[in-house]
Amino acid sequence: MADTLGTINARRALDKRAFLEFHYPSSNSKSDNTIVRLPFYENPKITETQTANYAEYNPINRVGSMYAYLGAKSRKIKVKSTFTLPHLAMHEMGIVRFLRIFTGNSKEAKKALFDLGSPATKQFTGGSTLASEVNDIYLNFLSDGDKLELAKIGKASINLDDYTNFGVPDLGPEFNGALGGSLGSEGLQNKLKTIDNNNTRSQMNKQNFEVIDTLLFFIALLRTSVANNVENPLLGPPLIRLNFGTMYRSVPCICKSYNLGWEEMAGYDLGTLTPRRLTIDLNLEEVRIGDFEKFEESHIVKRDNVAGWESAIADPYTTDPKEI
Questions:
Q1: Phi, psi at residue 51, to the nearest 5°?
Q2: How many CB atoms lie under 10 A from the CB of residue 278?
Q3: Residue ranges of the domains in the chain?
Q4: CA distance 298 to 318
Q5: What pLDDT does 106 receive?
Q6: What is the mean pLDDT of residues 189-198?
């Protein structure tokens, strides 16, 4: 018997172990620092390439070239992932869960960064919900008769009944594999119906808007990956740290380009026209600067120094930095 979606989420804790961390620069080291964590809720597809630079020599009458190593270009890492609206509804959402502002770069500050109860953490407070505003615009276009008909099926104000009443499209084996198990539309519907039975309609409206607003925040976050601070143009785009289990541990990167799209067959949220399944592609390039000294994987600055093959064949047996 296949595991339920909730059980799989609890076992994998993918969003806690696989994520992109956006580090936004500040004007000076003593000012507040902003870090935003963008989790992966479905398995990302990650590929990397790296090329070496060589000078080639072809001496007269010699059969074969000679080469002088001139270094290597930065690793190029491509990240592809998806966000599925009904799937996000299974997790705790809200912009406040992902955006933190803290002072200093100490290890203690990093640990407290995502602790909602930490007194040292300044929590983000957003304005009115964008999802509810767009939904209100949609309702203004409806006649009283249409609103009455929608109210009968629980859609006069958009809520998670969008998925239970009208069904979740079967997104196929690729979506099921991304979640780590066999999960078709039936499993999502059953889970959402359980949520619907245990919450009031107003709570459902709030939760659905919160899910959509969080997804819109993720989109805005991705768009900042190639943007600077307009008020202070000296502050460039954020440094992005890639984390995915043992394969990538806090690898510092810049984003050269991104692509954002969605799958038409997955449908849309009725009131907000938010696509139910978004696809993202990021073209990242590794940036290793640190303090230009010896690589130390656990040091908050030295972990970003360049690491050669000596680090791979001897302690620490890795060339990647360690998440602090």
A1: -125, 145
A2: 21
A3: 5-58+65-287
A4: 11
A5: 63
A6: 47
What's the pLDDT tens digit per position in 60-81? 989 999 999 999 999 999 999 9
Q: What is the mean pLDDT of residues 188-201?
A: 47
**Amino acid occupying residue 87:** H
**In this structure, what token pair is assigned to residue 148?**
């009455």
pLDDT at 1: 35
| HSE toward the beta carbon, residue 308, CA cutoff 13 A | 7
pTM score, two decimals? 0.76
DSSP track, 108-147 = HHHHGGG-TT-TTPEEP---S-HHHHHHHHHHHTS-HHHH
Tokens in use for 22?
């956006």
Angle, helices 201-223 vs 130-140, to 10°: value is 110
Tokens 């080291």, residue? 29
Average pLDDT of the segment spanning 19-30 = 81
Give the Å distances, CA to CA, from 11 to 5, 45, 189: 10, 20, 20
What SS3 class is residue 42? coil
Of 265, 133, 155, nearest to 212 (Cα)?
133
DSSP 2: P
Of 75-79, 95-99, 150-154, the one with minimum mean pLDDT is: 150-154
Q: Are 44 and 243 in contact (CB under 8 A)?
A: no
The angle, 0 to 180 degrees and rounded to 10, between the axes of the packed helices 185-197 and 5-12 is 90
Distance CA 26, CA 96 (A): 20
Residue type, 57: Y
Instruction: Name the strand (E) or helix (H) holding 211.
Output: helix 201-223
Q: How far apart are CA 252 and CA 14, in angstroms?
A: 20
> Would you tell me how many other CB atoms lie within 10 Å of the CB of residue 320?
22
Gap between the Cα atoms of 178 and 176, Å rounded: 5
- Please state, in angstroms and rounded to a whole number, the distance separating the CA atoms of residues 150 and 174: 33
